[in-house]
Amino acid sequence: MSITLKLLGLQELEIEIASLEKALAEGRSRLGESRQLLEARQTKSTLEESHRQATSRLKTLEWQSEDLKNKLKHINDQLYSGRITNPKELTNLQHEAEVLSANMADIDEQALREMENTETLWNEFNLAVESLAGIEETWKLDQQQLMQDIQAASEKLARLRQKRDEAAAEIDAQVIQVYERIKTQRSLAVARVVNGTCEGCHISLSSAQLQHARSASMEKCANCGRILFCE
Ligand SMILES: [Zn+2]
User: Fold this and answer.
1) Is 0.85 surpassed by the pTM of this model?
2) Cα 227 to middle of ligand 1, angstroms
3) Spacing, Cα 182 to ligand 1 middle (Å)
4) What is the pLDDT of residues 80-97, one digit of tens each?
């Protein structure tokens, strides 16, 4: 196997390793609770709290209504007892009864609206509970799959790194040094030659360069400095 073919093989292994490392990092970043799950959980607790508050407001309104009803009954009992004969006192009591009735009507109307609101919130809360359960179920399955994928990718990565080290060990240390140096500058150190052109920089090679590249020797592109590989 020519030295350039060995270097190309090494480079291809390194490309595969880099892409797998990227995929692994991306997979690991998806481990844990998803944004969708957190949002669904938040929606559920917000609705739960809103429903609790609405129920508490409704209770207060019902107490207020009950209180007004008792007061009104007390006044009506006085009004129709026949014990009060003073016209001014009677007028005052009648007026008080009217005010209480009006207040009660107002409170009852508020209570009715609050009752509807409580019901709506309760339905929304139940839908949110259902939705959260579905999201949690899907999320759990996704996480299980993700963990399996991460495990498989980690194992594959370990094998590839081993292969890469073995491939590198078969190449002369000085050649590796050159390869690493070009890599730091050009990211990829080996460029294929396609139709007489360096694939790294897309510049046509001179016939002398082509000839050298076709021989077993290690020829670098005069333009970009990459190691040329001819099929
Ligand atoms: Zn080049």
Assistant:
1) no
2) 8
3) 12
4) 998 988 999 999 999 999
